[in-house]
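As promised in the previous annual report, we have extended the structural survey to additional targets. Below is the entry for UBP16 hydrolase.
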Amino acid sequence: EVSRDDPETAFCTLANREELNPEEDSIHHCLYQFTRNETLTETNKLLCDVCTQRHCGPKNNIKSEKKYAYTNAKKQMLISLAPPILTLHLKRFQHAGFNLQKVNRHIKFPEVIDLAPFCTAKCKNVAEGNTKVLYSLYGVVEHSGTMRSGHYTAYVKMRAMNNHLSDFVLRGQSQASETEPIKGQWFHISDTHVQPVSVSKVLSSQAYLLFYERLL
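The corresponding structure token record, generated without further manual editing, is:
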């Protein structure tokens, strides 16, 4: 979808992302890097239809003449529709020559995360004037082992039904104002073994998948 928004606001976010100063090896740093502003130049220049028509004439002559105009551009990936359920998938591998190597270091993640610095200023399902888009952690998938073999386990929070989340799913809106994580007991699940654990144990895990539900 090609968007022709006002260039002055096209790269604006709900909250000032420059005030984040995210800590390395954190989920905030991952999101900051994923949504960073990129400059497209040289071989990455953007094919511009307007520039092509300006320099080469009407569209029906473009293909026959095989003349195209490319221009420098800016690119940024931002969230335009905040989901009821936020799933974050961490890429836990890196290239080591011709081989893939698993990344085992711990990535910090919070109980409550604010997506506002990563949402477009015109995010479709955020009420006007809101500068926070909050999510509460309710599930983590962890992988132990190597790229060739290993074992998946999960941390899941048992909590009361989130009526505000139902409003988001059914109607795309809510009047929720919570800023604290949804209360509940965490459990570690490994095959048929289930045991209660503390939230500190959950937050120290090597997350592979993170599941958040929307608060605000």
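The two ends are 27 Å apart (CA to CA). The mean pLDDT is 83. These points will be discussed at the next consortium meeting with the crystallography subgroup.
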